[in-house]
Amino acid sequence: MKVFCQLKLNEKEKQLLSNGLEDHEVIYAQEYEEDVAKELFMDCHVAFGNPPLEWIQHTVNLTWIQLESVGLDPYQEEINKNNIYFSSLKGFFDRPVAETVIAGILALYRELPALITAQQANKWIKDEIRPKCETIKDKKIVILGAGSIGKTVKDHLLPFQPGITLYDIAPERSDYYSLQELDLSLKNTDILIGCLPENDKTINFLNAYRFSLLPESAIIVNVGRGTLIDEDVLITLLKDKKLRGAFLDVTREEPIPADSELWQTPNLILSQHTAGGSKDEVIHKVQFFLDNFYNYQNGQIKNLVNP
Amino acid sequence: MKVFCQLKLNEKEKQLLSNGLEDHEVIYAQEYEEDVAKELFMDCHVAFGNPPLEWIQHTVNLTWIQLESVGLDPYQEEINKNNIYFSSLKGFFDRPVAETVIAGILALYRELPALITAQQANKWIKDEIRPKCETIKDKKIVILGAGSIGKTVKDHLLPFQPGITLYDIAPERSDYYSLQELDLSLKNTDILIGCLPENDKTINFLNAYRFSLLPESAIIVNVGRGTLIDEDVLITLLKDKKLRGAFLDVTREEPIPADSELWQTPNLILSQHTAGGSKDEVIHKVQFFLDNFYNYQNGQIKNLVNP
């Protein structure tokens, strides 16, 4: 079988993939110019990674593609056609993302940006900082998105003993049953965590109206999609101290343009879409693919996303 | 009864204390010059806070002192005399300190100092940072000190699913039974967390020899006492990349002198002894004292430290 790998791998990662597929031919996109890679892709039966949509639209041999993402853009239409099996990495990023959420909340609550900045200037600011510090204990937390990331975030927060409520667009997995209930609860929310995918219902979900419901002491964390938040509103609220702070892993534009106002907004930490990352991320992706390749050969692909 | 308050309180905190002691006379040190305060102290039966040792050595009326610290220096000798009841704030700082430990580990693992520094310069560094990020999951953690802080740290870490071992000088509450066992385990330790009090056995516990046992990928967190660590050795190891990073809440000298090498040591975060702090720290201390004042009147002082 011909397997196409769209991921850029180092030697160790290549070795792992090639060894795992020793009875098959592996084509590494990184070894070819784009037009040659595209031609080779047309011959392949299986693909690993996120190749250009247009390649997939023209292939006739492809039976299965293992994406290296949880998100399905820009493939949704192809997925719906049901000609090719698509599987995602759903669940793959849950733990690093959840750890990053905790990192973000605690960086804001333990005043790490101010401490790190003071350290750059050899400056002792204990007496100013210590009374500003806060704890997660007893805080009221609302997690937007009750998927696997939202639930993993909740699991990591439990020993801190906050109050946690899950909200989801799909009411059956939500602690709230309506937007009205959610909006009512926001005025008592200390920590609002966005773990929602992007769709018609979630774009601009955190708009001026919904932000206005939050108390000035609230902090926001977003690890879902950048479009969840009206960033201009957020910037103004942070500048006017109408919110205590925000930690954004995702933003509307990525990379964030050098002239974006986000960079210098006070009490905002930008983690630059690193939340899902880890030193062994690619190795683990290859391992996931190899496991799923075995599943594929047995007709039991994991994480299928076709309707 | 005359109650002496050594803590500096704001109006709200004073109100709380005075209301709670309405049948008693409260003397606030902050309202007097030091020599007058000392004279007033001599008349008091109860004290709240950490007054100068010499005052305590000369008082004859004092029956109980509620310290505002967990540590007992410089009072140990007075405590051993057993003329005055001493109680500490043992347990009081467990949760903020544990949250700070998690903040510190995750700040190092999610590369927050580099991200915050890049943000100051409007600089997108995702591709450089993401492959350096790490997760607590599956890491091997050794917590030095199995007191209430060490145990609370462990509780907070459990959902991250690392391996955790508690070491204590008191072997009955330790997972290791000897220093030899601890030292053997250090070569596989990813995260070493210091939660030890200061005494003959813990001063310089993390010396050049013990540091040399750790792998280069290890990180250190210290929230116990600054004397645990040979700081010169730590600075050299971090500069030479023989350790991945360190998060120190406590240091040998506090405030850290402006010309200390610690400030500019790479991969070191200094949280400036803020770990136990929180916005409501003083209010909570007053509440603790009032509860314990009630206990005192009933002959059941909590957190007594006399032998």
Gross morphology of chain A is: elongated
Name given to the CATH architecture of the largest domain in chain A: 3-Layer(aba) Sandwich
The tally of helices of chain A reads 12
The CATH topology label of the largest domain in chain A is Rossmann fold
According to DSSP, the number of beta strands of chain A is 11
H-E string of chain A = EHEHEHEHEHHHEHEHEHEHEEH
Give the count of structural domains of chain A.
2
Query: Strands across the major sheet of chain A, in which order?
Result: 7-6-8-9-10-11
Structural class of chain A: alpha/beta
Per CATH, the superfamily of the largest domain in chain A is NAD(P)-binding Rossmann-like Domain
Give the percentage of residues in beta strands of chain A: 5-15%
Report the mean per-residue pLDDT of chain A as an integer.
Answer: 96
Q: What's the assembly state of these chains? A: homodimer
CATH class of the largest domain in chain A: Alpha Beta
How much is the radius of gyration of chain A in Å?
22 Å
- Largest Cβ-defined interface: A-B, 58 and 58 residues
Terminal CA distance of chain A reads 26 Å
Sketch the major β-sheet of chain A.
6 strands, parallel
Secondary structure topology:
2 copies of one chain form a homodimer.
Chain A: E1 2-5, H1 11-20, E2 25-28, H2 34-42, E3 46-48, H3 53-58, E4 64-66, H4 76-81, E5 85-87, H5 94-109, H6 112-120, H7 126-129, E6 140-144, H8 148-157, E7 163-167, H9 179-186, E8 191-194, H10 208-213, E9 219-222, H11 231-239, E10 245-248, E11 268-270, H12 281-297
Parallel strand pairs in A: 1-2, 1-3, 3-4, 4-5, 6-7, 6-8, 8-9, 9-10, 10-11
